[in-house]
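dumping this here before i forget
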Amino acid sequence: MPPKHKIHQQEIGQLRIFLTPHERHPARAHGWKRFLPSTALYMDIIHSARETPGIVSATAHAAHYGYSGHGKVQGSHAEDLNPHLPLCVELVGPKAALKRFCQAQGDLLRDKVMLYKHLEHWSFEPHGFKAKPATKKELMAGGA
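structure:
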């Protein structure tokens, strides 16, 4: 029996940016607005990603329990955000769009740990299975 649904594959990437929850965007305002509290950096990253063509998803993941670098294990039994653990902002989109985003936001991302991962996006295609295998160059760029 032939499959009922066909799948379409598309190359895509995931960028993870690690920062702490208390990091703030450097003050950009002038005049009296410079005295207002600045927004959380992870929120600014997500809003900037929204304005970047091609980035299809941006989310922030808070850590509840774990460690970073050589630090001690942090956390509690409560599901509250631990301000001593990293927060991860995850962006999904074509590699070129993610690179454009990083180049445009270089001042904010300069000292951040960033990890890129090559992914494959699947969706249902009404007119048959369309698969474009990743080239060796794409695989080396995504996994190396």
